[in-house]
Design a protein that fits this description.
The protein has 700 residues and is α+β, with helices and mostly antiparallel strands. Helix content is 51%, strand content 17%.
Length: 700
C-alpha cells in the first residue's frame, strides 16, 4: 500500500508516523520517504480498507493538517500551488506578531506600562502560536505529551506564568519563523528533484497507418508504434529515428548544455527536447521500461536507501526528546523538593530544557543534505540511488574500470584481416557466425561485411554464444568458431595471438584455422582527464577487461591507469574485485555491459554507463552516468565528498550547541534566548547548510 501524505513537512513527525504504522499488528513493515511524502506499508495479509483507515487515523493524530491519498506514480504538480496561500498567511502572522512583540517590549522597558506590555505581548504570542497551542491541547488529550507542539506550548506558557512575558512571546515567534524557513527549505529541495518530474510526458502523438495522428496516454503506446514529436516538444518514449537527422536538447538527462545530433536509425531517448524539424520515431520500449520512467523511479526511490548517518539520527531522535524532557522535570522538581516550595527561579532552567528538547535540526538537515547531494548530481547527469551510495563513495579509495564502453568509446572498426589473400572468406564467415551477437566487436564485423558484400545475413544459421569466448555456428554443414584464443584452445584449434593493439577475433572452419580479424577501439576523449581527477582524490585506479594484454595495456597507458588486468572472464572480474576489497576501504566499479552486472553488484558502489549501458547493468548499479562520460564519476566523488562534509558539520554543530546550552541552562548561565537559538537557530543554520549540497557545479 503506497500512500501520498500531502502537506507533510516535519521529518520528526514523519518518522513517528512510520513507527506507529509499523507497530500495527497487521503490518509487516512500513517505510517513509519524507522527501517524496510517500508512505509504503507492507501488510501481513491483504491490503484492506480497514488498514487504510487505521493508517489515516494515525496520520491525523500526529499531523492533523496532512491529507492521505493513494500514491500515484507521479504526484500532482498542483500541490505546491495549493500550499502557497498558507505560506502567505504564515508570513502575515509572523510580521504582525513581530510588530506586536516589539511594541510590547517598548512599553515594558521604555514606557514602563506593564499592563499594556502584557496585553501586546499576549496578542503577539497568540497571533504567532494559536495553532501550536490548539494542537498542544489536542495532543494532551491524545496522550502525546512529548510532541514538539506540546513541549513548545508548555515552555512558552511557562515563561508567561513566571513573569517572563517577552521571552514567552518571542520564543513562540522565533519557533514559527524557524518552522517556516524549514518548510521552505524542504519544499525547495523537493522542487530541485521535482524538476525532473517535468520529464514525465502527459501524452504521445501516435501516427496510424493511414497517416492520422492521435494523442494518447504514453502508457497506451506499444512497441513498434510510430510517434510524432513536433519541434519544442519533449520525446515521450524511447524510439528509433525514422525521419531525417535532427538536433535535440539532452540537458535534462545528461546535464550537458550542448545539443546532440541524432542520425536516422539511431535510438532517441525519451526526455530529450526536439530542437529541429518534426521527428518520427518507431517506439522501441514501452513507457514502463523507457529512459524517463526508469529515471523517475530511481529518483523517487533514492531517499529510501538511507545512509548510516540517517539511520543513526532516526534512532537518536527517539531517545533524545524523552531524555531531555525527563531531565527538565528533574531539574524543576528536585530543587523545589529540597527548598520545600515552588520557585519561579528554579522552574526557568527546566523551561529552557523543553525548548531545546526537539531534535528537528538533526532530523531535517541530515536527510536534506543527502537529498540535496542526490539532486545536485541529477542536474549533472548522474543518478545516485540513495544516501547510502554517497557514504560508500566518500569511503572508497579504489576505482575499478571496465574497458570497452567505459574508458573506450565502444565504437569498433575492422583495421586488419590476416591472411589478406583470404580476407573476403574470413570476413564473410565471421559475419555469419556473429549474426545474432550484440557485442560491439561483432557489430563492427557485420557492418564491415555489409559495406563490402551487401546483405549476406538473410540465410538461416544456428549459432551458440559462449560467454567470454565467442560464438560457435553451423554454416554449410561445417562448425565455424569465431572468438578469442580461449575459444580456439577449447576446441583444439592451434593459433597464436598477434602482438598488436586491438581486439582479435580468430576464425576456424571444420577444425581448420583460417586467420583473424583485428578490431580497434578508441579511448574516450575525457578518460585520461577523469583518471587524473580521481587520483587527486588519492584514488587507486584499476582496469579489468576480457581483451588481450596488448590492447588492454595500450588503453591503460593512455588513460593513466595504475594496474591493468586483461584476458578475464566475467567470474574472474568478480574474483579480482573481491581481492581488491580486502585491502581497500571501499571499491567503486564502473562498467556498461550485461556481463558487468555481477561485478557492479559486488562492488561497494557500482556505476553503470547508462547511455549505452544494458538494462541489467543499470538495475545492478548504485549510480547511473547518463551520457557515458567517465568524468562524471569524478564529479560524483566530488559531490559525495561535499555532501559528506555537510552532513558531519550539521551533526557536530547541532549536537555541540544543544549539549552546551543544556549544560549552561542546568547551571543557570544560559537563558531561554540561548535555548531558542539552540532549537530554532540551529535548525535554520543546519537546513541552510544542507541546501548547499544541491548547488554543485563541476569545475570544468
Amino acid at each position: 500500500m503506497e500512500l501520498l501524505l500531502n502537506g507533510l513537512d516535519c521529518a520528526h513527525c514523519a518518522e513517528k508516523i512510520r513507527c506507529e504504522v509499523e507497530n500495527l499488528p497487521e503490518v509487516e513493515r512500513a517505510e517513509m520517504n519524507f522527501m517524496a511524502k510517500k508512505l509504503t506499508v507492507q501488510p501481513k495479509g491483504e491490503v484492506s480498507e480497514e488498514l487504510f483507515e487505521r493508517v489515516c487515523k494515525i496520520v491525523s493524530e500526529i499531523e492533523p493538517d496532512v491529507s492521505v491519498t493513494e500514491y500515484g506514480k507521479y504526484p500532482e504538480k498542483k500541490e505546491a500551488d495549493e500550499e502557497e496561500p498558507d505560506g502567505k498567511v504564515m508570513i502575515i502572522r509572523i510580521i504582525l506578531s513581530a510588530v506586536l512583540a516589539a511594541a510590547g517590549i517598548i512599553f515594558e522597558h521604555i514606557v514602563g506600562n506593564e499592563i499594556a506590555a502584557l496585553v501586546l505581548l499576549l496578542l503577539a504570542y497568540l497571533t504567532a502560536g494559536y495553532d501550536v497551542l490548539w494542537l498542544a491541547v489536542k495532543n494532551l488529550f491524545r496522550g502525546k505529551m512529548l510532541d514538539e507542539h506540546f513541549l513548545m506550548a508548555v515552555a512558552s506558557a511557562g515563561a508567561f506564568a513566571i513573569g517572563e512575558y517577552a521571552e514567552g512571546a518571542v520564543v513562540m515567534l522565533l519557533y514559527q519563523i524557524g518552522e517556516y524557513f524549514q518548510d521552505y527549505a524542504v519544499e525547495k529541495s523537493r522542487k530541485s528533484i521535482a524538476g525532473l518530474m517535468e520529464l514525465r510526458p502527459d501524452s504521445a502523438s501516435v501516427k496510424s497507418a493511414d497517416g492520422k495522428i492521435q494523442r494518447v496516454s504514453p502508457e497506451n503506446v506499444r512497441v513498434g508504434d510510430v510517434i510524432v514529436v513536433a519541434p519544442g516538444e519533449r520525446v515521450p518514449l524511447d524510439g528509433v529515428l525514422l525521419s531525417a537527422d535532427c538536433s535535440a536538447d539532452t540537458s535534462a538527462l545528461t546535464g550537458e548544455s550542448v545539443p546532440r545530433t541524432f542520425r536516422r536509425g539511431e535510438e532517441v531517448m525519451s526526455g530529450v527536447i526536439n530542437q529541429s524539424a518534426v521527428m518520427e520515431l518507431e517506439v522501441s520500449r514501452e513507457y514502463g521500461q523507457s529512459t524517463v520512467a526508469r529515471i523517475l523511479e530511481m529518483v523517487e526511490n533514492a531517499s529510501a536507501r538511507k545512509a548510516p548517518a540517517e539511520s543513526f539520527i532516526t534512532k537518536f531522535a527517539r531517545f533524545y526528546t524523552p531524555c531531555v524532557v525527563a531531565a527538565a522535570v528533574l531539574l524543576a522538581v528536585i530543587p523545589m523538593i529540597i527548598d520545600g516550595g515552588f520557585s519561579a527561579e528554579r522552574l526557568y532552567p527546566a523551561l529552557s530544557f523543553l525548548v531545546v528538547s526537539c531534535p528537528c535540526a538533526l532530523v531535517i538537515s541530515v536527510p536534506l543534505s543527502y537529498f540535496g547531494g542526490i539532486g545536485g548530481a541529477s542536474k549533472n547527469g548522474i543518478l545516485i540511488k540513495g544516501g547510502s551510495v554517497i557514504d560508500a563513495l566518500c569511503k572508497a579509495d579504489t576505482v575499478v574500470f571496465d574497458k570497452t564502453g567505459t574508458l573506450t568509446e565502444g565504437v569498433f572498426e575492422v583495421t586488419e584481416i590476416v591472411p589478406a589473400e583470404n580476407a573476403d572468406r574470413i570476413l564473410t564467415l565471421c559475419a555469419k557466425a556473429e549474426r545474432f551477437s550484440t557485442h560491439p566487436a561483432a557489430l563492427s564485423v557485420k557492418r564491415k561485411a555489409e559495406e563490402r558484400f551487401g546483405d549476406i545475413l538473410s540465410e538461416d544459421i544456428s549459432s551458440e554464444e559462449l560467454s567470454g569466448m565467442g560464438v560457435k555456428a553451423d554454416i554449410d554443414g561445417k562448425t565455424v568458431l569465431a572468438g578469442n584464443k580461449r575459444l580456439m584452445d577449447k576446441f583444439g584449434v592451434v593459433c597464436e595471438n598477434p602482438e598488436k593493439a586491438g581486439t582479435v577475433i580468430h576464425l576456424s572452419e571444420g577444425g581448420k584455422y583460417l586467420g583473424y580479424i583485428l578490431i580497434s577501439d578508441r579511448i574516450k576523449p575525457r578518460s585520461a582527464e577523469a583518471v587524473k581527477r580521481l587520483k587527486q582524490f588519492n584514488m587507486k585506479t584499476v582496469m579489468l577487461t576480457g581483451d588481450r594484454e596488448a590492447a588492454a595495456r595500450e588503453i591503460g597507458e593512455k588513460a593513466g591507469i595504475d594496474k591493468v588486468y586483461s584476458g578475464l572472464m566475467p567470474d574472474q572480474k568478480a574474483s579480482i574485485l573481491e581481492e581488491l576489497q580486502k585491502d581497500a576501504k571501499g571499491v567503486i566499479f564502473a562498467g556498461d555491459g550485461i556481463n558487468d552486472a555481477p561485478v557492479l553488484m559486488a562492488a561497494d558502489a557500482g556505476f553503470a554507463m547508462g547511455g549505452i549501458g544494458s538494462d541489467a547493468a543499470i538495475e545492478a548499479a548504485d549510480a547511473v552516468i547518463m551520457d557515458d562520460d567517465p568524468m562524471k564519476i569524478a564529479y560524483a566523488m566530488d559531490i559525495s565528498a561535499k555532501t559528506g562534509r555537510i552532513v558531519k558539520q550539521n551533526i557536530v554543530f547541532a549536537l555541540a550547541v544543544k549539549l552546551a546550552v543544556l549544560i549552561l541552562a542546568a547551571v543557570r548561565i544560559a537563558n531561554m534566548w540561548a535555548a531558542v537559538f539552540a532549537d530554532v537557530g540551529v535548525s535554520m543554520l543546519a537546513v541552510l547548510n544542507a541546501m548547499r549540497a544541491g548547488r554543485y557545479k563541476p569545475n570544468q
